[in-house]
Amino acid sequence: MDSQAFPPFSSLIALTGVTPAVARLPLENISSLAKGVYRDPGIIPLWFGEGDVAAPAFIGEAMARAVADGHVFYSAQNGIPEFREAMAQYLGGLGRKPIEPDRITATTSGMHAILLAMRLIAEPGDTVIVIDPVWPNAGATAQVVGANIRSVRMDHGPAGWTLDLDKLAAALDENVRAVFFASPGNPTGAMLPIETQAAMLDMCRARGIWLIADEVYNRLAFGLRAAPTILDHAEPEDRLLVMNSFSKAWAMTGWRLGWIVHPPSLGPTLAMLTQFTTSGVATFIQHAGIAAVRDGEPFVAFIRDYCEVGMRIVCDALEAFGRVRLGPRPVAGMYAYFEVDGMPDSRAACLELLEKTRVGLAPGAFFGPGSEGFLRVCVARCEGDLREAMGRLAGALG
User: Tens digits of per-residue pLDDT, 199-252?
Assistant: First the structure.
């Protein structure tokens, strides 16, 4: 066959056919830095939000029993009743207000929960305010649905990372559809005072704006059973969506299980959105989640202490490095977020540090405007790895 009979093949033909919102998505993230070297045993991988401790055996055993018992068919779209009941009981035990099962929808990860939220409330041309520095996937998900992102940056000073409510109020124009925040924060480890969260809710109520809260790290608040939750100040039908995940507190990153707390009136709509995206969370995975919240409190306490010890090791070292500005130590989560003098390009710095020290860090540039001079390090690792990593970094950052 004469190959000249066909037009020259271009690898861009398909790419030019995607939606403009998707075409504008950045094609580089933290994983891009790890490409090709992620499993290199000589590298200490502190770039991702994932520790080195696996979920306890009883969670896997619960999943295996569910499979053996035949829980392998389609799931109810909001989650099986047993899961929703277990989550309602769990959340009611953490906060001051009861949470009814009809306010809970199971999701295939916290990421899926955020995607459902954006699909639910944002359209092309809407504006979503993102309180940053924050996990980049939140804003990117809003972009997927065609919304515009507006940054309201937290201030970094003697009190740590704080939110100026006047700055937020000034950003709330008629195009704003939602405000997204995380507390405790990723990458900052900061907890917004509950008074600040309540004021944000009041602002949104007064304007008919949605408030989206990421509480994925709420069980990793040092010295507390749980971080303060905006759910304690909300009414069931407030325009409030609260996201969470099993990934961090139960070390279930690969299990892909999360949930949304939402107004009860949205249950049927979220069921249909779930039907049109994943058709529901695997039933046997939901049984693993039930076991986690029912029997996992000792493990959650262990993970919280594990991160606190890791934070102390890392921050002790960072505070001794001459080029590093850390500020007040994080009070929650699994990250230290620090600025480095003479380092305007965090991505280039991470690549250089990876080559010189074999330690993987995440560049601040991914976490919002104004963070180009910051780096993030995950502290959810064993003491030996963290001390070795800090020793390697000392020559470059000391």
Answer: 999 999 999 999 999 999 999 999 999 999 999 999 999 999 999 999 999 999
The backbone region for 342, taken as left when phi is positive above 0, alpha when psi lies in -120 to 50, beta otherwise, is: left
Q: How confident is the model at residue 5 (pLDDT cuts 50, 70, 90)?
A: low
C-alpha–C-alpha distance, residues 189 and 252, integer Å: 20
Instruction: Specify the fold of 28-55+299-397.
Output: Aspartate Aminotransferase, domain 1 (3.90.1150)
Residue tagged 């933290």 (tokens): 30
Q: How many CB atoms lie within 10 A of CB 153?
A: 18
Residue-wise pLDDT for 352-387, tens only, equals 999 999 999 999 999 999 999 999 999 999 999 999
8 Å CB contact between 355 and 123? no
Secondary structure element (H or E) that encloses residue 177, with its range: strand 176-182
Instruction: Tell me which H or E stretch contains 391.
Output: helix 383-397
Distance CA 51, CA 248 (A): 8
| Of 188, 190, 171, nearest in space to 129 by CA | 171
- Domain spans, the chain: 28-55+299-397, 57-295
How many CB atoms sit inside 10 A of residue 96's CB? 10
SS3 337: strand
Q: Does domain 57-295 have CATH number 3.40.640.10?
A: yes
Closest by Cα among 189, 201, 190 to 233? 201
> What distance in Å separates the CA atoms of residue 353 and residue 349, rounded to the nearest whole number?
6
